[in-house]
Structures are given as C-alpha cells and as structure tokens.
Amino acid sequence: QVQLVESGGGLVQPGGSLRLSCAASGTISRLYAMGWYRQAPGKQRELVASITSVTGDGSTNYVDSVKGRFTISRDNAKNTVYLQMNSLKPEDTAVYYCNRIRGAPWGWGQGTQVTVSS
Questions:
Q1: Residue in 72, 62, 69, 73 with CA at minimum distance from that of residue 86
Q2: Which of 28, 69, 74, 91: CA 20 to 30 A from 62?
Q3: CA 106 to CA 117: how far, in whole Å?
C-alpha cells in the first residue's frame, strides 16, 4: 500500500503563492498518473490537477477554476508530486490531497490545509 504525505500548506493572502508537495512511499507511484485534489468545508472532494505517469508524455490537466494559476509537476526520482499555486483566491481555501487518478484511490493522506484570507 502506498502511503502519501502532503505538506506545504498554510495561510496566505489573496494573490499569494504556495508550493505543495506530496511524497509517496516506495516507487510504485511512478507508474501511475497522479493528481491533486481538494476539499473545501461542506463540499465534495474535487480533482484540480493531474499529471501522467513516468511512462507518459508528461501532459497535465487542470480544472477550469485553476487553469493558468496552478502548475502540477513530479520528480520521479524523489517519488514526489508538486503543486505550484499562484494568484491564490479565497475560493482556493481547502484541504489539499494527492492520490492516483485512476483505479481505487490509495489510502488518503492527512492532507495539507490551504487558507487564503486577508
């Protein structure tokens, strides 16, 4: 079972930036397309960004609300997926998680809280 540990969240003012990290145990995560999800209070968890596996072409996808502001990347040597978040808005406030995007999700990590507020 892959264990996922998210970090990098915090409190930031609107317009600010954060970089989230997701460290996966072992190397198997390299074989899967990975995504960043978020869950705001009272809302369902949603997939906001994804990236292909190590065998893919590196293409990325984003939900419309974060296009042009968020960038997902991965360092397969470190078994780590990143989410660079720029021009943050209050509506980006949520707990952010990573997981694979196909198949039954691995056990969810604790997530990392992102709060955008002045």
A1: 69
A2: 28
A3: 31
Cβ burial, residue 22 (10 Å; 0-12/13-18/19+):
buried
- Residue 1: per-residue pLDDT: 83
Nearest to 40 by CA among 108, 96, 94: 94
Q: How far is CA 30 from CA 23, 39, 67, in A?
A: 11, 24, 24
Q: CB under 8 Å to 55, separation ≥6 — which residues?
A: 31
Confirm if 34 and 73 have CB atoms less than 8 A apart: no
Using the 8-state DSSP alphabet, how is residue 66 labeled?
G
Q: Inform me whether the pLDDT recorded for 56 exceeds 90.
A: no
